[in-house]
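MODEL INPUT / OUTPUT PAIR
PAIR INDEX: 1
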Amino acid sequence: MVSIVQPTPQDAERAFRPETAPHVTLRELADRLGKSGIAARVEGNGDVVVSGVCLDSRAVLPGDIYAAVPGARNHGADFATAAAAAGASAVLADQDGARRSGGADLPVLVVDSVRAAVGPLAASLYDTADSAPALLGVTGTNGKTTTTYFITSLLRALGQRTGLIGTIEILADGTRIPSVLTTPEAPQLHALLGRMRGAGVDTVAMEVSSHSIDYERVGGMRFDVAGFTNLTQDHLDLHGSMDAYFSTKARLFDAGRSTRAVITIDDEWGQRMAHTSDADVLTLRTQPGDDAVSDLPGEAWQVASLVQRGLGHDFELRGLGGAVLRAHTGLPGLFNVSNAALAVLMVHASGVPLESLQRVLDEFDPLTVAVPGRMQVICEEPAGIVDFAHNSDALERAIGAVRGDRPGARVIVVFGATGDRDATKRSTMGAIAARHADVVIVTDDDPHTEDPAGIRRQVLDGALRAIDEEGLSSSASEVFPRADAIAAAVAMARAEDTILVAGRGHEVWQEVNGVNVALDDRVELRRALEAAGFTPRPAGTDAADPAGNG
């Protein structure tokens, strides 16, 4: 096994910071928090200068204020001495943390809740509350990444300098910064916005996960436009129920956090979101429906005139008053039409006139940008596709998107389930794969600290039960490790078949008991295809280029 070498915490943290560090006294930060409605007081020397904010004692840089967050097992203040040794100039803590950090001999900025205060504090320090690039945030269960890439491509075609913050990567006007979380922590986000402002970035497209909302990672941020894709079962290990999951997402659509909202209303959750939001709402329907949603607030848009062209689709966006936008996306699947339509409307809601949008849609085909690990085509015959689908709804949509109309062609799907996450979806994913694919190969995803065999068994049991109880003609088996499962799928494939490797997408390592082991589904699929005598696309031709058009 080959382990991936990760950058040091300090190196990773430096990558987020603006080129010119701010210099604000602790007393001034306390005053600014007070003016924003957050009570704060200084214990110790209020004249120390703060030049950064950090939540991780291992990543603290000289001059930082170390934000000591209380946890389930430890209080961040227990690590204040380590932060001081790294050069921290002060500590941000609650009252308990202030007492526990005394050994660090640093001044303390005391607040009621560190999580609630750290975002506004970082916004004040980096001056991102009033002078940040425009922010377009996308949330929902599926489609966040693709939608942000579409937004970025559209904005680049319009001549804007763009930023991108998401699962796959962070871009500051073309400069790549390693991305660890779907949404970084609040201090890193505000530092990034400061860095992007310094680079001349006009607009930032950003994925906003439910975790980031729940943990206040987007604290102190103001979104010009918030977009909603969909809501399906996921992350119930954190939220406990779909209602709680929805409520967390809905916090992004408060008028105090987002000025405008574009909400996809194809299901009850989207319709409920449109009713819940008090922002300026545009609604988007991308699937046929009745008039049951005619009472929804805001400006209504509808996808129409849908025609398949190649792997993708031509479509129109129609609004009230006869407004029409004609568009095309080359990415497979009707869900990518939904993602593309949402991206177009979010850019329009940010202030771009329809005429300008139509011009770039006609001239540049910006909605055919490649997205790493999202319906990424590795081979044509057999069709070999890698996708990030890692929950029931996404898996069903992905299988449906790759099923062609060639007689006798089969869909062979390779996937697993993640350890230490919502276990209730595992058997459901197995059943969905058995219903919609012809051959199901169950393997490992990221087991984390769980026994991989137990995870595989739950997924396989769901598939076999569906085959038996519903009389399905599909087959299901278990093959591991993952590289062997991909090779097994290729070995049984005919030229007319489709191999879908789902669940990990762009990821380049597999976490097993805390160790990151090198594993890239795209590399393994290409290797297996070549070994079997097939001709995959040349390596590199399927890479993403959100600054371009393909």
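PAIR INDEX: 2
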Amino acid sequence: MKEFLFTKEDYAGFCENKESLVQQWAYKQLIKFYPNSETTYKYTKKFIQPKMIKKIERMKYLIMTYLRENWKLIDSDFLFGLVEGKTEISFEMQAHILRALAQKGKQKNKIVNLLLQIDGRQTNVNTFLVVIEALEILQTDEAYAMLRYFDKDLSSPFPFMESYMNALISYKDEKDINLILETLTKKQEKFDQEKVISEFNTLFKAEEFSNLFMNFWQQQPLEDSLETLKYYYPQNKGVERLNSFLGAELCSLHQNNQYFDFIFRLAEKIMAELNQRYNFSEKLELDNFDLEFLNKEKEKLREEDYWLLYLLNFILDNKKTIQQHFSVRFFSLELVVMLLVVLEDNNYQKMIRKSKEDQDYLWQQITLDRENLPAALVELFLESGDVFEDRIIKHLKNNRYAASISRMLEYLIEINSVKAVPTIIELVDEKQSDLVCEDAVKALEKIDGYSFETLTAGLEAGDSTTHIFVSSGLEQFATNQAAGKTIEYWENGILDFHEMFVLTLQEIGSKVGYDYLVVEEIQNLPEYLLETLIILGTIHGEEKDRLEVYKAELTDQKAARKDNGLFDFFNQSAGGDFNSADENDEYSRNNEGTIIRTEEKVGRNDPCPCGSGKKYKKCCGR
């Protein structure tokens, strides 16, 4: 641990301060620097109680983030103690704790029993979604039984039904698959059919391509989509072969809206490829392709190929329904995704089996031009120790925009690779995607032991994107030196966003930062600056009268903001039995069923209140 201005005991003392902003700040430092310490557990237990969450602004989101991002580090017994003991916590927070335990993968039946104790009649939609997510992670018979108990025939009125369907799809029960597809065709007005169909791509490891076409492909011509694919996956074998197959003639069919002709041509190609892959008892062709054929040949098929053909059969058998109730263009692009993964020809079961025996083979598979690989394969990679460290650093230097970057960074976090830090910083620039930049910064936050000079040298050598993202690394150094450097960067224009500058100083916690921010005239100062002055002034012993002036101005500004009615940001329809018993003053429903914020502000990096699991800035805060 680096030499900081404050010790763990200092932060614990600040957690006892009467000022709620200081308590919130101190707890955030504990979960950042000491995520698995007894001191952090002590204050988590204190702050997780509803009366404390209601009192302290944003504390709920700090705890939710802590559980979501640090579940590997947090002690299982501590988490079980929270939901089994006498600590009074809300149903929503119980759900988040049990989700973290589900990810840890131990005592799964015990987790299900505890999930059963969450009263569905007294939970909000957000809580329900987290419960569904936990049940999807568990993948046990008991978890499945609880999941199916919620809705036997997909007729419940609760919102976000697509999330429930997606959880069911993950269990790969054919009765559920049939029911979902049938429901989509008969009650198409109730669901986002395209979103649910896209979830089927997880069954044959094509979700990342599906995400691409959901974001880009439906808004651009097929030829441009192929260029997008080549840009994102320059070394992917399936992309290369797909580009060769989809020549001018097929692109012309698609351009002229002859989608079913296009679909049949791609279906024939998929079947031809699989006929070469398998020795079927009779050749697979459009004329004989049905579920009877599929079930007869099931034992020969890889699991991914079976589910791909299962969905293909649905598309081909429901031409009339698709024409009437779905987007045929959407399904034409779905066939592109299917063909891509068939041409890619990844045998995941073989990959996992051979990777257990041969590290060089594991390296070949883990560097495939793919963002998503089977969890079992990635786990083998993460558990392999530091044998790949040098290879990964070299790989990142030579493949700065590779699809494999995320899991490479995860590995470097796992082994706490200090020597990889300069390379990680170099990943962040204006040509890089925001997602990679965020993953790189997350790695910088998690890796401990690198020098302050390493961080600042990389930051100063970078461009404006580097400055925006990597400057958050300054927050990992709670030192006067870091505060002084932050001020220098502000004055020299390396940091040019005032809120980011102030909040960086707040995170560092130095009196150097406080002294720089202090001004005589406080009227109309931004709220974030007033809050920072209160926090830093309190922990560094500012006179009480001066602190009261800051607090009064902050109270006046919040009151004015509330009067302006700027809090309606989150729309969601009311959902049956999901009432507001678990909601506090932070959110309430108006007469139309819309959830509105009535008190506190959600931070951009906090979990989104909609329950999606994404950060607010990546979801409802866009």
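PAIR 2 NOTE: Residues 239-352 form one domain.
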